[in-house]
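Most newcomers find our protein records easier to grasp once they have seen one. The structure tokens are whole numbers drawn from a learned vocabulary of backbone shapes. The record below serves as our worked example for the rest of this section.
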Amino acid sequence: MLHECYRAIKPGGRIRISTPDSNKITGLLTNNKTKDQINYTNWFTDKFIPEITDKTTSETFVINKMVREWGHQFIYDKKHYSTQCKK
């Protein structure tokens, strides 16, 4: 994929690669959620999985939607991303 990006991009152009952070995602499962975590879970559920009406269990649905339906093969944290990118 990166070879094709390099071939197609204009000189001086840039690509942006983004991957979910496993620590942030698994943090949604904590018992003591921050206001931001609650707001994010509610926003995500309302926008992408409105059929989930029980907000007390929606974190698991949010995580599964992110991983399975959006085609992610591996969810990295900073330590593993740094290690994999050096290869």
